[in-house]
Amino acid sequence: MTPDSSPLARQPQVEAIVDLDAIAHNVGILRTHAGSADVLVVVKADAYNHGAYEVAKTALAAGATAIGVTTVAEAVALREAGIGAPILCWLNTPDADFAAAVRADIEIGVASTEHLRAVAAAARAVGEAATVSVKVDTGLNRNGASPHEYPHLLDELVTLARQGTVRLRAIFSHLAVADEPHNPTNDLQRDRFIEAVDAAKARGLTPELVHLANSAATLTRPDLHFDLVRPGIAVYGLTPVPDIGDFGLIPAMTVRARVALVKEVAAGEGVSYGHEWTAERDTTVALLPIGYADGLPRALGGKFEVLLGGARRPSIGRVCMDQVVVDLGPDAGGVAAGDEAVLFGSGKNGEPTAQDWATTLGTIHYEVVTGIRGRVVRNYVGGAAE
Ligand SMILES: *Cc1c(COP(=O)(O)O)cnc(C)c1O
């Protein structure tokens, strides 16, 4: 998405509006659930497509104490933008620009001896100690040091910490099935995590923090909170456990498109490529200038609704690259070109939600909000934007 830098710009055709007050509200809910644990807000992937800098700033003002991202580049960009809080990044190739991370005082997640050595080399080159957090694999079997690698990583860390080349900030791990709070794998990962922390302490290492919980565990498993929780999706107002509840979270992103054209379609006429939809009666349709190139999935064609002119209007026919058509019914419902159609939002005004799209698509709302792109212009309401 393109950030809209000009406040005087004509209202965009297609817009993603991010409500920073909703972000602050959601951080407040997460802090309440976190209890005595601190809150690190995950703003990877440009804050799940909500804008990393704006979300980080808003979340810190709302009481979060740290920021998490994936890569060194994301972390350094936030530091350069003026985020002063601790920033952790946790997924980098061993040849990443760790020197830039050290210079910007970024906490670097390491998952292997190779990573740690690369970070140490960067620290020596810069002439400052690197701050590292050890990512240990407790059962996700994705990122994180494997049970075989972990003892070697700790041994190397002991040496480097003694030399003053690196400083150990934290030991952390990531859950595989936190969205199923009662799944025994959560207990297994907790037990393995505690063992991993003990193994570090047995070597004389003293992590300042240990952390394990994502959004789902923050909201449903207080026994997994440790010193700090790392929510991502819940910050954006989307519940990580839709079957359990929404915890009072408010979805922060609203996607809307302005009607480009209203026209009549006669009974028997087909609409859009392939004529997959045919008018059963004379009707009126609205053309919306958003398509699959903008993150409206083609698989949703004929399977979603928009809120337009005070009512839900069904999409008809195929979603094209740049456009989609909705049926207004014979009287057009007073809809005119330029009117706003809401594709998804918080749901509080009767509009569909990202969860509705996810359910229809057989995916998760994470993919829906991160998929909005192309010509969609992102704007902010609430928070520091006002
Ligand atoms: C993405 C991520 C999170 C946040 O997960 P959510 O399910 O969005 O809360 C936390 N920790 C790590 C390591 C992650 O990669």
From TrEMBL:
PANTHER family per UniProt: ALANINE RACEMASE (PTHR30511), ALANINE RACEMASE, CATABOLIC-RELATED (PTHR30511:SF0)
Highest taxon above the source species: Bacteria
Protein known as: Alanine racemase
One Pfam short name: Ala_racemase_N
Residue stretches spanning the membrane: none
Molecular-function annotations in GO: alanine racemase activity
Active site: K44, Y273
Top-rank EC class of the record's enzyme: isomerase
Biological function: Catalyzes the interconversion of L-alanine and D-alanine. May also act on other amino acids.
Family: Belongs to the alanine racemase family.
Modified residues (N6-(pyridoxal phosphate)lysine): K44
Species assigned in the record: Antrihabitans spumae
Keyword terms, alphabetized: Isomerase, Pyridoxal phosphate
InterPro entries: Ala_racemase, Ala_racemase/Decarboxylase_C, Ala_racemase_C, Ala_racemase_N, PLP-binding_barrel
Enzyme Commission code: 5.1.1.1
Reactions catalysed, as given in the entry: L-alanine = D-alanine
SMART domains for the chain: Ala_racemase_C
